[in-house]
Write a structure and sequence with these properties.
The chain is mostly helical and 655 residues long. The protein is built from 32 helices and no strands.
Amino acid sequence: MTGQNKSDVPIQGDQEEEAIQNEKVRLLKGYSSMIISIAAITMSLFHLYTGLFGVFESILQRAAHLGFALILVFAIYKPSRKAAKNQSIPWFEWIFIALSIVSYSYFVMHAQEIQSRMSYIEQLTPLEMALGFIACLSLIEATRRVIGNTLVILILVCLVYGFWGHLITGELGHREFTPMWIIDHLFYTASGVFGTPLGVSATFIFLFILFGKFLEVSGAGNFFINLSVAGMGKYRGGPAKTAIVASSILGTISGSAVANTATTGAFTIPLMKKTGYKKQFAGAVEAVSSTGGQIMPPIMGASAFIIAAYLGIPYMELAVAAIIPAVLYYLSLFIQVDLRAKRNGLHGIQDGRLPKTWDIFKRGFHFLIPLVVIVVLLIGGSSPMKAGLYAIIATILVAAIRTASRLSIKQIVKALDLGAKASLETVIACASAGLIIGIISLTGIGLKFSSIIIDLSGGVLILALVFTMITSIILGMGLPTVAAYIVQVPLTIPALVELGVAPIAAHLFVFYFAALSAITPPVALAAFAAAGISGSEPMKTGLTAMRLGIAAYIVPYLFVYGEQLLLIGGISQIILSIATAVIGVIGIASGAEGWLLRHAYWYERVILFAGSLLMIFPGIYTDIVGVITLLFVYLLQKSVRKDAQVEQPSQLKEM
């Protein structure tokens, strides 16, 4: 008996030691979580304060904004995918956090002095050089963790070009710049990291991201989804139409096609599969719907604030100009979903299984008030920053109307916490893009790149547009939409403007294709996220998504050649352009889906595409020929409709 007790002693001791160790780990996790939340909440409160009482000097506001973000990045994002998750902040992360605090605190505390100094003339001190170098390294490392290697590689290529590009002979070379000159330009002026993109992020965008989290915590997301289900569920292809409506509303607020796909797709994709849509089609519908949220006014995923800032126009002017292209995008998707449901004999959800639209609306109509507040304030001339701030206040107030949505102090704190964390990708993307823009502006490579595009295209606009489209999509595959757009502002847009494209059309052209990269193979991130939910093959889902979004690949060319689609021009011209574009989009959707009144044979689809393109491109003669062509296909299908109905839609190959 004594021997048995002795043998138990070390075992019991090991268990006690393990229990003590587990308790230490638990406490460390708790402390780490608390520190992260305090930093996130403080970041949100800082922006609410500046929204209420006015922003600080540009360098101070932007440096504080980025400094908060870097602290959160190094506390939350692990140095590699293999690193252990859900653990306390490792000791080496505190080094990154400390370096970020020291370097960016210097910019905050000396903001006025930095802004008043004579750049490139007054020499930087060794301390300022060291702090600029540390700030650059910490930003690049944060970019690697948050955005990925693609943007880091672009940054490093630009930095190498800035330091050693003078060794290149010919047109691509530039004058020699000292390290001090480069650090000065990137961190001690408003032409680099602390430039326009980070400025917009530090004012307008952050508050709109925070607004989205307040809506989420209050339950507004569920209201929009339930209202979409109640309103669209009973119609043919109802679940897919529900996904379109819900994702367009939530996507315009969230600003991330992938995040919105994962959020709303968890509900809409299984619902579509249950009613008969094949899994790859269901995933593609959700991906295209969520991607379209970035181009849907009034918020446009907050990226529109940066576009408006670059154009130097009121935000509402840009939002109004983007309405018709966004409507055409969703019209095409809606028609294809409806035709697919008709082709496969799919029906809506029975009324008995659907919630009543009026009942859902009565319980959650107050969630629409903050969106109305935004639109009214922007139309009234208020700044986007004030609109975002008052929308947050309106959300808190209207949520109190009903007990179920009323926000407690704990929920408000949670929204502040989530809002700051949700902003990190945008903050880091805008700041790191500033490194690229800084080198481009310093070396003058932007103008040279524009000249190269013009030379390659031979001065032919359509070729320049194609080159720009390819560049936008490729950049968008590896970067967030905001970063992909910002990088091109000094590179490709000047070439388009020089070839006669209106500035607003040039900016929107680049932005649209940067957004469409989310559904364009081979790297269609939104489609791949949807495939993970639907259980379909990622590449097939991406190809299906690309077909569903086909109108979006055409519409940007249309508003470049016909500014009437951006609501620029006379009323009669605008109405005619919209009417012909709508008819053309219907024809394109029918051709892409292979169904009009019945299954369309290959030659009918070719004619549909040709006639639709003629209708969409401006010009009275093209419109007349287009109408005749589409009418011919309609009459042809109608005349042989009875014979064609012997085909079984269920036997048609999934496209």
